[in-house]
What does this fold into?
Amino acid sequence: MPRAGRGAGDSGRGAVQAMLRALPSVDLLIGSLAGDAALRGVPRPRLAAAVREVLAAERRRLLDAGGAAADGDTLGRQVTARLTAGGLFSLAPVINATGVVLHTNLGRALLSPLAQERLREVAAAYTNLEMDLSRKERGSRYAHVDGLLRRLSGGEAALVVNNCASAVLLALESLTRGKEVIVSRGELIEIGGEFRIPDIMRRSGAILREIGTTNRTHLKDYANAIGPETGLILKVHTSNYRVVGFTAAVASRELAELGRARGIPVMEDLGSGCFVDLTRYGFPYEPTVPEVVASGVDLVSFSGDKLLGGPQAGILVGRAELVERLARNPLNRALRIDKFTVAALEATLYAYEAGTALETIPTLRMLTEPIASIRRRARRILARVAAETQRALGAHIVESRSQVGGGALPTVELPTAAVALGTPGRPAERLDEALRSGRPPVLGRLLDDHLLLDCRTILTSDVAALATRLSTL
Ligand SMILES: *Cc1c(COP(=O)(O)O)cnc(C)c1O
It folds into this structure.
């Protein structure tokens, strides 16, 4: 029997045309959905676009495969499904069960309750963002965090820009346009999203002067490279990788001394700057921001939303004369932070000064949470899932390793507990897909034949929702 589609005879084509004509009109379908409670809040243009998409798909199906046209109710259900699958807003919370604490693709650091409160407070009100109230004169938006950053870091002055990449760009553009920047070959890193330090440097107009080798760079390499064209010595923290074995790098203190002796400023891009020493919690030694400042380097840059645990920002601290040159650069205006960044950063830094950072800043709390406490959360999740469902999903608790992420401490693996899922009948890949597509989306980590839901990064407030997602898989 001939198919009623392309290539069918005249009578077949006529039947398809009749079917196409039988499809409801855009207006009719919109009208039939207007009162649908599931679509409350969906703006009319979005509804109209979804209706057109569903009708176009149905037309294609009829032309390709023939058969009977779907009725208005069926098409209406397709429109509703399309519009409600992801919720009203594109940017939405997800449950991070990857175990990566600073996950750049999941928005990096979570803000402390205090920072959240401050954001809400300044969102709906006029603020003294750039108003010196005592003099009724224009003030500086950086003044709100300047004192905190100076006291915490020991630097003479501070400046905050959009992110650490722009901090590096601003520093190089301000200090080294048309001059040479001396940097070790072993520190020419790619920081993710295919952004490379050498590219940022070239964009700034600086001339890159690579020294040393991939694994070893010595003080004399720096000293020999200094000439009349030298504008800056730059040390870059190799945040997201490690060269191990036969290696040598020059300490910040030695570079600072060399720079001072030869009249060349020295900058250190720390990337993931931190104000607390995490060695107590089993982490390898990493110099803190105040330690790097104390080493004598002139300028230090680091991110707001990596180990610091605050909002996205690029923070610069160091010698007042240099920081002022950066602040006066017109490029700084293009990289400036908004009141939300100021508010969240002030609250985050306040916690460091008040000594409450480890308890209140989610990044630090997650990184230092004892394994026993993570295991308890794993048990609490399973306790909310029926034994029968657990068996069907092959759910059980396993010990695993989580990562810091965000290009920080790349070799550190933190012991953790995870809920493992997957059986021959319910393969892990399929469960992973299902968990990612529902609401709230859950992102886990596939390892061998299992999907691991790492409980280090699962929030206490996620436990109930996660258990519901597991129960309805
Ligand atoms: C992460 C990182 C950056 C970029 O920081 P963003 O805040 O993401 O722009 C720059 N330098 C180093 C060494 C880094 O680790």
